[in-house]
Amino acid sequence: MDRPFEEQSGPPLDLVDLVLARTSGKACGRAEALLPEHTDGALGRTDGDLLQLHLGYCSSCRDLSVALARLALELPGLAEVRPDARFIEDVLIRTSRAPVRRALDWAAHASIIWQRLVLRPRLAAEGAYLGTLVLAALLGLIGEGDLARRAASLVATNPVSAAAGPVSRVGLALDAAAEDLRSRVEASVPAAVDSVERSFREGAAPFRLAAQRVQRAVVDLWTTGEPEDPGPRPTGDPPSTDVPIEEKLR
Amino acid sequence: MEGRRCLIELTTLLARCRQGDDLAWEALVRQFQGRVYGMALHYSKNAEEARDVAQEVFVRVWRHLGSGVEDERFVPWLLRLTRNASIDRLRRRKRRGETEVPEDGAGTPVAAAGDPEAAAIAASHGRLLERALAALSETNREVLLLKDIHGLELQEIAGLLAVPLGTVKSRSHRARLELARAVLALDPSYGA
């Protein structure tokens, strides 16, 4: 039997559930979506208040909320698990003999490589070998049979003309190459021929000049035993441009 | 030194390690052995495998200490190394057709060390959580492992897993709810 109107102190306890069942349904889904942020304390004030209100009436969401809060405290405790006592020893044994690799920039790398190259004991021998090769190439000794025998015969006979031969051959070869280039380019781009040839000859000029100087130096060395005299050297102190001290004092 | 925490700042420790200080290196290994081994154990579920992986990780750390790893990025870098090494090991094991061999008592949670009664309770909770974690999907478990257990930032996890930040965030929320439900299903008093 229904209570008389004056005896009722509030709405029926199941009224909210009845209304929700006929309208939006239970709000637990929305509450659960907010629970992780609520646990992190990252929920906005309005959402937090609404959630707290829901948790006051919904025991399943409240249990979930408590469980989430406990997990937030207990999960970090699973991060560290102590291995057995031998672990440290094994790691130290495996790492004790290997050096730590250090980060180096490209300049440091280049410097290290250069130092390794320069500080090698074989550097002098390699330099001498390279110099010999250059000299042999200039004298035309490479690619013509026994180098030692050719070198000995060259010294015994006439090294000046022998040195002059290859040097002049280099000049002739450069001229021939320029001529060849000219004839090839002339066929396709006549207008550019002159400038290409000029630039090629200009580029080759220093080499030709250097070859001539080497030739002269070899000739001088062989005939006089000294390099060509560069001319009289200036003697005495250069004329002073300073103002005399008397002038300054005056 | 067993059970003691290193009080030297990580930056100082790393600087000493880079100078070749063996004591600093030992302190660093002691400080992070639990986390590296713990993470490897979560992936491999096998004490011996986890031990091998953890050793391998520390050897790699030793070799690359001087390779420009920023001090403040050291822990995420270390955990990334551990995760990658663990996954590589699992892949090799799968290629060889070997099956997983789960092992109980693979190690003692460091948090449980000390008072025996507290240790027993913590161990019991640890087992409960491990069982609940085992019920989760692989994806959710990994996000939980990286974020809620090892404390990586969402941004770091997004980079590690190569997924957008929003995806990591929503996965993390889902994973925590899933774990809470799993724990409550195993032990309803957990939410009381």
Give the oligomer, counting copies of the same chain as homo and different chains as hetero: heterodimer
Computed over alpha carbons, the radius of gyration of chain A is: 49 Å
Structural class of chain B: mainly alpha
- Uncertain regions of chain A: pLDDT < 50 for 5+ in a row? none
How much helical structure, as a percent, in the residues of chain A? 55-70%
How widely separated are the two ends of chain A? 136 Å
Tell me the Rg of chain B in angstroms: 18 Å
Percentage of residues in strands of chain A: under 5%
Helix content of chain B: 55-70%
Tell me the layout of helices and strands.
The complex is a heterodimer of chains A (250) and B (192).
Chain A lengths: L14 H8 L5 H13 L4 H13 L1 H16 L6 E2 L3 H11 L9 H13 L4 H16 L8 H10 L2 H30 L1 H35 L20 H5 L1
Chain B lengths: L9 H9 L3 H23 L2 H18 L9 H22 L12 E2 L6 H19 L3 H12 L4 H8 L3 H22 L6
